């Protein structure tokens, strides 16, 4: 397994829609393993392929408590097919926007269809943190960041900060 470098805001690839996965093979399984290892190393609870520079509709999630051990989940070509009317609010962060957190309101429950690593069709009903994480990562696959769900003023401040940091990295 290989830990991949994370793509950071303002990299334009984060705004590109990801393409469906069509081949379910050993290479896809290895890619998912690399994503999980990268997510754990960061550390984070979710990762979309685009966050390591691959515009493929693949996400990894593990919301297990540290004491429980790891409970990795891989979702290929996930689609939200239903959302609850009631909402929940979580403080969200993002591995592509390090050290920035904001309260985000999202539907409290979602139903997601997806494929597993063998290509088998699956469906999951999620609520709470898992529902939030699924929505956050699926947003990534559509070129949407969690800062798109906060006020324009706060979003613009974050983008300016990370654009400045990116310029500093280039000149260093």
Describe the structure in your own words.
This protein is an alpha+beta fold and 172 residues long. Helices cover 29% and strands 30% of the residues. The protein has a 5-stranded antiparallel β-sheet. A two-stranded antiparallel sheet has the order 4-5. The chain starts with 25 loop residues before the first helix and ends with a helix.
Query: Which class best fits the helix and strand makeup?
Result: alpha+beta
Main sheet? 5 strands, antiparallel
Number of DSSP strand runs: 7
Query: What's the CATH class, please?
Result: Alpha Beta
* Number of separate domains: 1
* H and E order: HEEEEEEEHH
Mean pLDDT: 96
Q: What is the fold named in CATH at topology level? A: Peptide Deformylase
Strand content: 25-35%
| CATH level-two architecture | Alpha-Beta Complex
Assign a percent range to the helix content: 25-40%
Low-confidence stretches: none
- Total count of helical runs of at least 4 residues: 3
Protein name: Peptide deformylase
GO molecular function: peptide deformylase activity
InterPro entries: Peptide_deformylase (IPR023635)
EC number: 3.5.1.88
